[in-house]
Amino acid sequence: MLKKTLTYFILFNLIQFLSLIEINCLTIPFKPTSRHLHAATYVDNKLYILSGLDDNVNEPLGAVGIGGKQFFYLDVSVPFSTSALVWNDLSKDNIVPSQIGATAVKGGANNDTIILYGGRNLTQVESKSLIYTFDTQTDSWNVPIISGESSIKRRSLTAIIDYQGKIYLFGGKLLGYDTYVNDMITLDTINLIWGEGSSINAPTARINYGATLLPNQNIIYIGGGDSLNQSLPLNEVYIYDTINDIWSVKNTLGSIPSNRYGLSVVLGLDGEQVIVFGGLGNQNTVISLGEALYTLNINTFEWSIPNVSGNIPNCRYMHKANVIGNYMVVTFGAGYNESESDVLLLDISNNNEFVWTTNFYPPPPTPAPAPAPPSTPSKNKSAVIGLSIGAILLATISIGTFFLYRRNKNRKVKVSTLHIPNGKLDNQSGQKTVETTNKVDNQEETTQVQP
């Protein structure tokens, strides 16, 4: 008996120990590799990160595709600190090959689908698919069938989507060719149709530029790198009118930033300025801390260096920036060290002073419109019954009045048209009979009898 009890005790403790091991393994937090030239897409309180080139130089050459295969997101519906990021791994269901230089936006019929375009594979076999889509409601990838004439796959460009669900893809580098282009291709993400925009007066061919959609549905293009590996100047910016399919150029003034590519551009919360961060200068020179952050007034096209407080980070390049709530959220990139977080937060809620911070607080949920006060069923029922009875009484009175009117008129016709010239006694009955004349005034009869 003692032996059996001891055996059960050992087995029980062994099972508990194995369970603890399993639980500890399952709760190991996911830590993505550092990367640049990745895609970052904000959809329904989640910031999705995909692709990119690993920055860990200690890894063997064959491992460069690890970061590009990782697919994960950051939940921004709750507060968090950049010193303790909680990433959620979705890599096991990812069908997109490891790649760099891809670009992604939120679109689709319900505006909840990630549309990923282009990029260069880090594997031996280059994927022929131009577009991959990720349904954020079902967490599933797909390769959609798109009609229309497509172009050669390209990389290192920025996709911009308008309010009607159309993506604009300008420039980039053609895969398989050492060729930079400056044409505009479009994709209707709702009907899945390729198209093209105007290239008349377009910027020169470039890659790794900054771009964002403005409130008037124009797209602004800033900086970039040319085919000679030179960064382009920011003393002029290019505007593409998505409504009229027209390019224009604007000369800038003020504190014009130095040439740069690999920068990020986002629209400020006031809708009156764009915010530029990071990039590389000529000969791949790193931008200094004091020149990493600029704003451009989109009405006057004047550059300025904003007032900034907080712990100013190193300048990054080939990163991504998204506006979420009150923050410009910068993810990954190159040019920073391990002492900094993979995510930077710039509070842009106050135009007089931007603040670099380590704490994120999501905006309060938008209150739903107050519902109309519910009507009392008994009152509605009484009102319906009352209206019904009233309608019936009104109809009854109208019909009764009509028939009484007809009856009285008919009587008047008969009385006015009968004449008794004389009376005769019926010989058989002894009663007096009345003779009617045939003389009747037709007009009078018609007037008196006609209903």
UniProtKB/TrEMBL annotation:
Database matches in Gene3D superfamilies: Kelch-type beta propeller (2.120.10.80)
Presence of keyword Chloroplast: no
UniProt KW Ribosomal protein keyword: no
Keyword terms of this UniProt record: Kelch repeat, Membrane, Repeat, Transmembrane, Transmembrane helix
Composition bias type Polar residues, residue spans: 425-451
Pfam families (alphabetical): Kelch_KLHDC2_KLHL20_DRC7
Domain of life: Eukaryota
Residues annotated as transmembrane: 383-405
Chain segments carrying region Disordered: 421-451
Name the record gives this protein: Galactose oxidase
Organism: Rhizophagus clarus
